[in-house]
């Protein structure tokens, strides 16, 4: 198993890095709905992001590994567009089932539409309409389409459907918007029923891609910390020369290596070994999110006083780490999901 990028993948990662860096650093992220929507439109226009990770027969351009390379770069700068939600999760759901779902996926790829996913136990389908209220739905404000997961069914609702209301909610990660979505008898189209296996596959794939995004955050945080401790001086020498600081930096590097190995293994499984994805995805996210949290906490300490300020980017990476850790359920649930898949 070789996780080394080929020339085309390296070129894609380089182009993505240049794009996300030009968009602005993490400490100036504005994740208001208008800014998040503009960020999505720019990624569609510059990278064709909506087509990455989608099979060619459905209008896509690449596999999951290529999408992972781009998501890692977006994680470095905490890019506020709904890349993980729409391309990483929603497109995966649509590609895992056929018929009308594939037709919708082709439209999404052709037009660059953003899709959010609603997966909440209080939402139900009654006589062809959706009712209920879902809280903390990530990226709902910027979505053109909604996919609602209800009891093993995948239901499609246009973002401008009647009797659908979306209200912003405060979340721990200011670079990724959350919202309360209210369904007051919203007409819906059922794309698939008895799709539990497809939903589980798409969720595991999205967990692996979320892990890759965490790898980008870890890498950016570690690079920034190394630069800081190499130039910040105390007692006439760089603080990076102190053994305690060096030990902390080495621990961060180990977290990066572990997270990257698990995350890219999951992305590889999505393309080459789908049977292993069921455990590789959740375990990769558990490992990467935990490592991201440790690295972000360590960075806040190593930066000293400035690491505790609102203006510094350190707390933004910590917030993203916390949000990713619980994006697809609590950490213990991810472990249970992975171990259950291993046991078969």
From TrEMBL:
Residue stretches spanning the membrane: none
Keyword rRNA-binding in record: no
Position of the signal peptide: none
Cofactor annotation: FAD
Keywords: FAD, Flavoprotein, Oxidoreductase
SUPFAM superfamilies membership: Acyl-CoA dehydrogenase C-terminal domain-like (SSF47203), Acyl-CoA dehydrogenase NM domain-like (SSF56645)
GO molecular function, one term: acyl-CoA dehydrogenase activity
Keyword Glycoprotein assigned: no
Domain Acyl-CoA dehydrogenase/oxidase C-terminal: 209-337
Protein origin, superkingdom: Bacteria
Pfam families assigned to the protein according to its UniProt record, in alphabetical order: Acyl-CoA_dh_1
InterPro entries reported in the protein's UniProt record: AcylCo_DH-like_C (IPR036250), AcylCo_DH/oxidase_C (IPR009075), AcylCoA_DH/ox_N_sf (IPR037069), AcylCoA_DH/oxidase_NM_dom_sf (IPR009100)
Family: Belongs to the acyl-CoA dehydrogenase family.
This protein's name: Acyl-CoA dehydrogenase/oxidase C-terminal domain-containing protein
Organism: Mycolicibacterium elephantis DSM 44368
UniProt lineage: Bacteria, Bacillati, Actinomycetota, Actinomycetes, Mycobacteriales
């Amino acid at each position: 198993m070789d996780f080394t990028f080929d020339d085309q993948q390296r070129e894609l990662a380089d182009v993505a890095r240049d794009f996300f860096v030009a968009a602005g650093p993490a400490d100036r992220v504005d994740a208001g709905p208008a800014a998040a929507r503009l960020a999505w439109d720019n990624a569609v226009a510059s990278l064709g992001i909506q087509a990455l990770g989608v099979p060619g027969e459905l209008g896509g351009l690449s596999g999951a590994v290529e999408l992972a390379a781009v998501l890692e770069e977006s994680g470095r700068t905490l890019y506020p567009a709904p890349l993980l939600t729409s391309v990483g999760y929603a497109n995966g759901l649509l590609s895992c089932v056929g018929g009308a779902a594939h037709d919708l996926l082709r439209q999404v790829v052709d037009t660059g539409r953003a899709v959010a996913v609603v997966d909440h136990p209080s939402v139900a389908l009654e006589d062809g309409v959706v009712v209920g209220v879902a809280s903390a739905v990530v990226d709902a404000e910027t979505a053109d389409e909604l996919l609602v997961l209800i009891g093993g069914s995948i239901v499609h609702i246009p973002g401008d459907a009647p009797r659908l209301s979306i209200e912003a909610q405060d979340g721990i990660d200011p670079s990724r918007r959350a919202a309360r979505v209210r369904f007051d008898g919203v007409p819906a189209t059922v794309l698939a029923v008895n799709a539990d296996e497809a939903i589980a596959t798409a969720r595991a794939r999205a967990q692996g891609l979320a892990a890759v995004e965490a790898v980008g955050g870890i890498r950016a945080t570690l690079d920034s910390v190394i630069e800081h401790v190499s130039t910040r001086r105390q007692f006439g020498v760089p603080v990076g020369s102190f053994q305690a600081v060096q030990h902390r930096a080495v621990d961060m590097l180990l977290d990066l290596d572990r997270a990257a190995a698990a995350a890219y293994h999951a992305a590889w499984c999505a393309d080459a070994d789908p049977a292993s994805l069921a455990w590789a995805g959740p375990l990769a996210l558990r490992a990467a999110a935990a490592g991201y949290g440790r690295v972000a906490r360590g960075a806040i300490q190593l930066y000293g006083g400035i690491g505790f300020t609102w203006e510094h980017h350190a707390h933004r990476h910590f917030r993203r780490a916390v949000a990713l850790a619980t994006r697809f359920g609590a950490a213990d649930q991810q472990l249970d999901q992975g171990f259950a898949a291993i046991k078969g």
